[in-house]
Every structure is written in C-alpha cells, then in structure tokens.
Write a structure and sequence with these properties.
The chain has 15 helices and 24 strands. The termini are far apart. The strands form 8 sheets. Strands 4-5-6-7-11-12 form a 6-stranded antiparallel beta sheet. It has a 4-stranded parallel beta sheet with strand order 16-19-20-21, with helices on both faces. Helix 4 packs across helix 5, helix 8 crosses helix 9 and helix 8 packs antiparallel against helix 14. It folds into 2 domains: about 210 residues, Aminohydrolase, N-terminal nucleophile (Ntn) domain (Glutamine Phosphoribosylpyrophosphate, subunit 1, domain 1); about 190 residues, 3-Layer(aba) Sandwich (Rossmann fold). It is of the alpha+beta class. Strand 4 and strand 5 form a beta hairpin. The chain is about 30% helix and about 25% strand. The structure holds iron/sulfur cluster (SF4). Iron/sulfur cluster binds next to helix 7 and helix 15. The site of iron/sulfur cluster (SF4) has 11 residues, from helix 7 and helix 15.
Length: about 450
C-alpha cells in the first residue's frame, strides 16, 4: 500500500478474509495507520487495501476504507477510488426507503446497494453489474464478497485500474508500479465497464455491457500517478517528457536555467530542457518526508507544507534567469510561494511554464477541485495569473499539445476541468459532444 501512498495520505486500511472479513484501518499514512503488531494478527489468504484521498465526505475515521458490511450470505468489503456524481440522489432515495448511513462518504452507497442486492440474490456478479448500472460517476473498485475478490472499473475508465501477477497469485491495483515493486508482472489494464474476478489460477472477466467509450482522466498523467506507472498503455514518465518538449515549443523563454518543481514537475522539466537546449538543474531541494501538498485536505496545511517541503539552492539560482517548470496550477497559492522562494534566493528573473492548460472548471470525478472561484485561472488572463504569482512570465501548454503528448484521442480522455465539457451528465454543466439545443429542428 505504501507504493500507492501518493494517491491518498489521509487514511489507510486493509481487509482480509479468514472465515469472515477482518479489518485494520486508521488515519494517516499507511505505516502510521497500520501498526506492525496489528498486521501480524491479521491472517487470511485474500484481501483488499485502500489509501484515502477525500473528495466527498470528510477526512475522518468513520470514512476510512475498506468499508465492510455483513449480509446474510457473508461479509462484503469495498475500496473505492473515484466519485459518484449521483450520490446525493441515490442517498436520498435510499433514506426515503428507510436506510440509514453510517458515513458521509459516497463509497458507502456502493456497498449498501451491493449488500442489499446480494442478500436477495446471492449472486455477486449479477449484483455488482446491477449496482454499476445505477451508479453515475467514476469508480475503480476492489471488492471482497466473502472470500471472492473482484476489481471493477466504471464504464468510462476515469480512474486507472490494472491487474497483474505476483508470486502469490493475481492482484489488482490502481497503478502498474505495484507489480514492479512486488517483483510481479503487470498483465493489463481493466477495461472501462469491465468486472474481473481474481481466482487462484485465472482472472475471470465479465463485460457488463455498460461501457460508454473512454474518458481517462488527463490529470492522472499530468500529476496524480507515479512517473514509473503505465496507465492505459502510456508510461507516465514518457508522457510527462513529451508534455515538456511540446511546452518548450509552444511557450519558449530566454533563460539561463530550467528548474523543476519537484517531484511531479521533474519529468516535464527534463522534456522542456531537452527541447530547448537550456541547462536543467535541480534548484529546489525537497524534503521527502513531507506529504504531497495538493492532496492535503486543508489550504493551511498546503501552504505550510510548501515551506517545509522546498528549499532553494542558491548556487543554482542566484543571479540567474530561471524558468520554473511544474505540472499544473490549480489554486496558484503553492506556485506563488515557490516563485517568491526562488526570488528570495537571488534569481534575476523567474518565469513559470506549466505542463497542463489552465484549470477552469470543477472536477466531479475524484479530484478535489470543486468550485470555480478556487482556481487561479477563473476570471484572469494568463498575464493576470503571472502577476498573481509574481512571475516575470507564465506559459501553459495548449489542450491540443497535451492531448498529443498523452497519445490518446481527445474523445478517449476526460478534459472536463480544462474545457468545461464533461463525459457524462452533471447537473448544471455541459456534456461533451453536446449540440446546442437550437441546432435540433
Ligand atoms: S475533470 Fe479534470 S481532474 Fe476531473 S476527471 Fe476530468 S480531467 Fe480528471
């Protein structure tokens, strides 16, 4: 689970089957939440684990995962990555039918629907398909129904999910790097709308018939995933370098040194330096014991986190014209602090180059970017944002440039937070490919 710690740092949990399902969960990083003495007591041959990054429901002990419930046919457990768009509607409908909810997380809706259906049918595959048919949103799930383990990807494939082989048998994970680290072998991505059961000697696939076309989240390649993971056929590291090269072509700048914002801006910066021929140098040292600041739930945590996390190297920066290259700007508060750090270290000029287009619209599918007023790009021109950052200039990659670097068709990606067009209906928002009403006769 520590291999996927970058995907969630608020809480961690593990559930294993040994007659029934037993769980250990706690707040904090995996090694804080899962104490060795508790893990030693946790026995079983199959299990699921989860690290949480909250987008719906607070960062609190009752919302830790996996969530476990008992049914008359045995225990079930779920670990969910993503966000259910119709969660409120489903929750209200179920409450009206007398159901009570123990958490504020949308993931509880999934397990309650599943528990209810399994109690009626005792057919997990049928029940999972039925639950999938009422969920609208993003979900990569690992599920345990008694001692059977399933992995499920939503019909658009927003969040990554893959399967691989380890010495012990088959496993599913959000990112392929898990199999590298365990000395195992990556087999393939789970397809959008696919349900797989991990059996001792095989992976049994069920196509649910729910696949709607692809809408992989572009932000996974830009920022979220580890650079050494391969998502839907594209190595993240390669994509980030290509983004950097394209950024150098689209947004050139005359500077003495390219400085990456560690860690996620590093591969983008290398690409930028390769393409531009400008020297690349690590001008910001990172304290690797501070958590990822973007996925910290509170703004105050994030701001303090930046200062704790980065220290400028004066020998690289002093009296130089510096281009800082980073993956994205969401709120702009982190980048503003970094620009000031670099200026205070004696830079003559500080330019900023960004490996994603401006983020202007909320995400409804599992990334905590919820309201338009939080975005640096809302109501501001690029020059305005540069002023806000106190940078000498600012340049973003274009949407076309980003899509080309990822290497999937634009129609196979979610670009909702960039262009305000979403792959599936979200109340008050525009659906992609939507024609204007007046074009219908
Ligand atoms: S809206 Fe943006 S962050 Fe959210 S899934 Fe789509 S591309 Fe990813």
């Amino acid at each position: 689970m520590r291999v996927l710690q970058h995907r969630g740092q608020e809480s961690a949990g593990i559930a294993v089957h040994n007659g029934g399902i037993n769980t250990i969960k706690g707040m904090g990083l995996a090694h804080q939440a899962l104490r060795p003495e508790d893990l030693r007591e946790l026995k079983g041959n199959v299990g699921i684990g989860h690290v949480r990054y909250s987008t719906v429901g607070s960062s609190s002990p009752e919302n830790t995962q996996p969530i476990v419930m008992s049914t008359k046919h045995g225990d079930i457990a779920v670990g969910h990555n993503g966000e259910i768009v119709n969660a409120d509607k489903l929750r209200n409908e179920l409450k009206k039918r007398g159901w009570a909810f123990a958490t504020t997380s949308d993931s509880e809706i999934i397990i309650r629907l599943l528990a209810n259906d399994i109690s009626d049918t005792d057919d997990p595959v049928r029940s999972i398909k039925k639950v999938m048919s009422v969920l609208n949103g993003s979900y990569s799930l690992t599920l345990m129904v008694d001692d059977r383990v399933f992995a499920v990807r939503d019909p658009y494939g927003f969040r990554p999910l893959c399967i691989g082989r380890t010495g012990e048998g088959y496993a599913a994970a959000s990112e392929s790097v898990v199999f590298d680290t365990l000395g195992g072998e990556f087999i393939r991505d789970v397809e959008p709308g696919e349900l797989v059961e991990l059996l001792p000697g095989e992976v049994k696939s069920t196509k649910t018939g729910l696949a709607k076309g692809r809408a992989h989240c572009m932000f996974e390649w830009v920022y979220i995933a580890r650079a050494d993971s391969c998502l839907d056929g594209r190595l993240v590291y390669d994509v980030r370098r290509k983004i950097g090269r394209r950024l150098a072509i689209e947004q050139p700048v005359d500077v003495d040194v390219i400085v990456p914002v560690p860690d996620s801006g590093r591969s983008h910066s290398m690409g930028y330096a390769e393409q531009s021929g400008i020297p690349y140098s690590e001008g910001l040292m990172k304290n690797r014991y501070v958590e990822r600041t973007f996925i910290m739930p509170e703004q105050t945590d994030r701001s303090t986190g930046v200062m704790l996390k980065l220290n400028p190297l004066k020998s690289v920066i002093k009296d130089k014209r510096v281009a800082l290259v980073d993956d994205s700007i969401v709120r702009g508060t982190t980048m503003r602090k970094i620009v000031q750090l670099v200026r205070n270290a004696g830079a003559k000029e500080v330019h900023v180059r960004i490996g994603s287009p401006p983020i202007r619209s909320p995400c409804y599918f599992g990334i905590d970017m919820k309201t338009r007023d939080q975005f640096a790009a809302t109501g501001r021109t690029v020059d305005d944002i540069a002023k806000m950052l106190t940078a000498d200039s600012l340049g973003y990659i274009s949407i076309d440039g980003l899509v080309e670097a990822i290497g999937h068709n634009a129609t196979d990606l979610c670009l909702g937070c960039l262009n305000g067009e979403y792959p599936l209906p979200v109340e008050g928002e525009k659906v992609r490919f939507q024609k204007k009403l007046d074009s219908f006769t």
